[in-house]
Amino acid sequence: MPNLDVLTSTLASGFLLGGILALIALGLSIALGVMRLVNLAHGELLVCGAYLSYFLLSQFDVDPISGLLVVGALMALIALPFQRLLIAPLSGKGMEAPMMTMFGVSIILQNLLLLGFSADTRTLEAPYAASPVSLGPVTVPQIYLIGFAISVVLVVLVHQLVTRTGFGRELRASSADPTAAAAMGVDVRRVHALTFALGAACAAMGGVLIGTAFSFTPSTGATYLLTSFAVVVLSGVGNIFGTLLAGIAMGLLQSVGALAFGDGYRDFVGLVLFLLVLAFRPQGITSTGGR
Amino acid sequence: MASMVDNKLAVAPTRSGGLVGGASAWLLPCLILALALAPPLMSNYALDIGFRLLLLITLAEAWNLLAGYGGLVSLGTASFVGVGAYTLTGLVNQWGLPFALAIPVAGLSAVLLAVIVSPAVFRLRGLYFTVGTLALAEALRMFMVNNSVFGGATGLFLAIDPPGVKGLYWFALGLFAVTTLAMTVATRSRFSILLRTVRDDEDAAAQIGVRPFRIKLIAFALASFLMGMAGALQGMKLGAVEPYGMFGIQWTVAVLSIVIIGGQGLRVGPIVGAIFVVAMAELLADYPALNLALTGLILILVIRFAPKGLVGLALRKTRGAK
Q1: Dist. CA B135–CA B116, nearest whole Å
Q2: Cross-chain CB nearest to B124 (options A93, A265, A278)
Q3: How far apart are CA A104 and CA B300, in angstroms?
Q4: Taking the domains of chain A in order of start, what are their residue ranges?
């Protein structure tokens, strides 16, 4: 039985990491909810964000956290033409063709990163990455606290964007009924392109936080893709605060799993949970449950 | 998912199935016979390539049954390959089972896995099958890496020597013959009509008395059986199994690319696709990352411009010429 300090610190770490998982899952959830796109390259977009930050840090000495928004904006800019080029022409061909196209993108990105950066494990070095913060019996790395705060702020900002702005109204309209939205003068193609860019930005910024808190390689993406899916399945598609709660729940469960079975089982716990939810509580998924 | 385009495509396999399927009724047995007579003339390199081709065609045929005929796009190929390979190694090491017996049992262990996970992956339709099978593959790989019972990250060694190149070729040819038979029965019988009905409209199928869950489970079990046996053959060839190789995503990528590049839902698609993919892997043998990146690119182009793959493209060209 681990002592109390370890237990409370583990739970606190899991809680804080859950916030970051929620930010990553949010990007996947938005694309799924609005575009009906199963973005199988979501994990690679995350890893790309981490490598972009790594590049900025090593070449221009840009601190990962101060450069976070820059990485997010850059990835959104890179993602925009991709959506026009790859996804938009496949609209009306069902969900499978875009999904498999994104799988192709994930293979390409993963192997280009492998060619460009080798398979070496990297971390984003920052002074706050390892230094601990203590409050009573709880000790967590500083980056967990920073990552959580940033993630929650970003999730709230996305929520404001979707519920309070003109673009958000168009986004919700396109999600509910693209044909009717188009008839009402909404440029659905533009909404989809921006949604995809927003999803990519969420993934990339999550990738920077993950890259600072942990380490990454070109093949790290798949795990985060699936963890994100588990979070989306737990919360239901298109429910932004639900995603935040489900992300935190996932973070807690992963930490408990890692404490109980060993650190190698951290991600395993999330995947098994995902399969169990699919088997026993599929109503957790609402808007795209059927087809 | 049954959009206009999908409905139009759904007709294609029936028509071309008649065309290519009719020819393949004669062609495939002839091909197997030719392949059975060939070994004395083949070099070790040719036999090795032959083994790989036959193995990949088997996997691709199984995947094609799921995706092409059943609309079940699986990203979990590696799970069934891995379970087959580990089961064979375990059976041979623990109980000294002969290979010829251990291979079908390894196939059955993959069927067992399919049956166990079917409630999770079939409960929700379409895309959740894809994501669910991917989660299964990742979960199994992580489990095998971390769990020491099955050798952990180092894996297990086969206690007896694997058969030589020629022996392996014969096993692969046998498996290919079984696959051809199974696929011919599955795609030319009433079952294939039921499967395509479920693919095109599950609700309508259920309305007229088809049981979608049962039909999908039969297809999933049959495909897993073939995949498990293919995995067993691969484990036998290597003489050692370890989680990164046997449960790795590369199986999933290779098999999926073969079918999509060759032609989804077409009987000869996997054969053409396997030759294409193996040829490309041989040409770029020194650049595995480049090979995979190019495969991804070709995949995207084929999905966009030739939804029925190279075979579909050829059929369209020849029809246009007439």
Answers
A1: 14
A2: A278
A3: 6
A4: 4-156+199-284
Test the A interface: residue of B5, B6, B69, B138 with most A CBs within 10 Å: B138
Give residue-wise pLDDT tens across range A82-126: 888 898 888 877 788 898 999 999 999 999 999 999 889 998 888
What is the enclosing helix (H) or strand (E) of A275? helix A266-280
Residue B254 lies in a domain: no
Residue B258 lies in a domain: no
Is the pTM higher than 0.95? The answer reads no
- Does the CB of A217 have a partner CB in chain B at under 8 Å? no
Contact by Cβ (8 Å): A51, A121:
no
> Could B304 and A101 be called an inter-chain contact, meaning their C-beta atoms sit closer than 8 Å?
yes
Angle at the Cα of A273 (from A272 to A277), degrees rounded to 5? 120
Substitution target in B127, B294, B301 with the highest count of A β-carbons within 10 Å is B127
Residue B140 contacts by C-beta under 8 Å, 6 or more apart in sequence?
A: B78, B79, B82, B83, B247
Beta carbons within 8 Å of A19's beta carbon, 6+ residues apart: A147, A148, A149, A151, A152, A155, A244, A247, A248, A251
Q: Is A185 left (phi over 0), alpha (psi -120 to 50) or beta?
A: left
Whether the per-residue pLDDT at A30 is higher than 80: the answer is: yes
Specify the pLDDT at position B23.
55
Cα B26 from Cα B46, distance rounded (Å): 25
Task: Spell out the alpha helix ranges (H) of chain B.
Answer: 4-37, 44-64, 77-95, 99-122, 127-146, 165-188, 190-200, 202-207, 212-238, 243-246, 249-262, 269-283, 288-305, 309-321
Structural domains counted in chain B: 1
Say if the Cβ atoms of B135 and A275 lie within 8 Å: yes
In a domain, B203, yes or no: yes
Burial class (CB in 10 A: 0-12, 13-18, 19+), B226: buried
The residue assigned the tokens 């650190």 is A263
Residues 232-251 of A with CB under 8 A from B: none
Domain that holds residue B236: 25-248
Q: How many Cβ atoms from other residues are within 10 Å of residue A94's Cβ?
A: 20
Q: Which of B172, B165, B167 is nearest to B44 (CA)?
A: B165
Where is B157: in which H helix or E strand?
strand B156-157
Lookup: tokens for B66:
């799921």
Q: What is the largest CA-CA distance in chain A?
A: 62
- B318 lies in a domain? no
**ipTM of the shown complex:** 0.86
For residue A264, the chain B residues in CB contact (below 8 A) are 142, 145-146
Say yes or no to pLDDT of A234 above 50: yes
> At residue A216, does pLDDT exceed 90?
yes
Give every residue of chain B whose pLDDT is below 50, as ranges: 1-21
Element of type H or E holding A84: none
Closest CA to A232 of A15, A44, A79, A27: A27
Chain B interface includes A103 (CB < 8 A): yes
- At A201-213, the pLDDT tens digits run 999 999 999 999 9
Percentages of chain A per state (helix, strand, coil), in multiples of 5: 75, 5, 20
* A chain contacts of residue B256, beta-carbon cutoff 8 Å: 100, 103
* Overall residue count recorded for chain B in this entry: 322
Indicate which of A32, A110, A111 best probes the interface with B, i.e. most B CBs within 10 Å of its own CB: A111
